[in-house]
Amino acid sequence: MFDAILIEKDDAGYRANLQQLQEAQLPEGDVTVRVHYSTLNYKDALAITGKGPVVRKFPMVPGIDLAGTVEHSNNAAYKAGDQVLLNGWGVGENHWGGLAQKARLNGDWLIPLPAGFTAAQAMAIGTAGYTAMLCVMALERQGVTPGNGEVLVTGANGGVGSFAIALLSGLGYQVVASTGRPQESDYLKALGASDIIDRASLSEPGKPMVKERWAGVIDSVGSHTLANACAATRYGGAVAACGLAQGMDFPASVAPFILRGITLAGIDSVMRPRQDRIDAWNRLDRDLDRQLLERITQTVALKDIIPMARQLLAGQVRGRLVVAMDV
């Protein structure tokens, strides 16, 4: 038997509960992992609360991240005892995920745990940090360098935003953080933000183009925020868009793209090819200051996840929530 968060939907309604399950209940897969740590992401919170159409099959164990030890493998790439991690691939949506003490998975979805990280550190980073690194790499590919000027990070207090600030600052960029929680300014500056702006300055309908300011943008918010960020991006600049906390709409104009030649790069972390994942994690191993993980992260027990999901959606959680399975 093992503990898991199980989401069910039937005539009695939609509900998530901590339950004990049997290993025979695990879905099909060629690798069984003893999960040591997982995370609580925005998408997981939507799944647990039913506030968004994340779960595609029921019953479902949520959790888009996990790190643990292989217990059994029919995949040639892994053997019992190997340390592995997983981000995305529809886990927690279409296939049972990481918010459980055990998971059975397609081994092709796994990558080896980088030697420079413990399982707890890898989950402190999780999909949020991995996505932030993909965004940074996208800006680099478009030629955005520290000498080009300020880089805007929206949703700065969230997981992606926190890591984006830390990574960009560590690489020498001048980072401006957009947040709706000005009381968190000290936290954001400790991560490396040089300036803080109120998200209200970006979240309302704006003009197609405004005065140029941003050399680059990492946006996890979408909607008017993304449109306004594009409108103020400097000639030849780039915007990496990876989230939709404000909405899926994009009420923008083509003007910044045509008249200023800016690039909008969509960042998908879920179905990213294996080599891209390995490259991003290698960059995290190289570029991320481990001491910052303590500022970004709090560790919680699996039994506390359901109320924490509601707090996360209410904007009451800073940074990353790491879930320890054996606490």
TrEMBL record:
The keyword Membrane does not apply. SMART domains: PKS_ER (SM00829). It comes from the Bacteria. GO terms for molecular function: acryloyl-CoA reductase (NADPH) activity. Pfam families: ADH_N, ADH_zinc_N. InterPro entries: Acrylyl-CoA_reductase_AcuI, ADH-like_C, ADH-like_N, ER, GroES-like_sf, NAD(P)-bd_dom_sf, Zn-ADH-like_protein. Keywords: Oxidoreductase. Residues 16-323 form the Enoyl reductase (ER) domain. Its EC number is 1.3.1.84. This is Acrylyl-CoA reductase AcuI. It comes from Pseudomonas fluorescens.
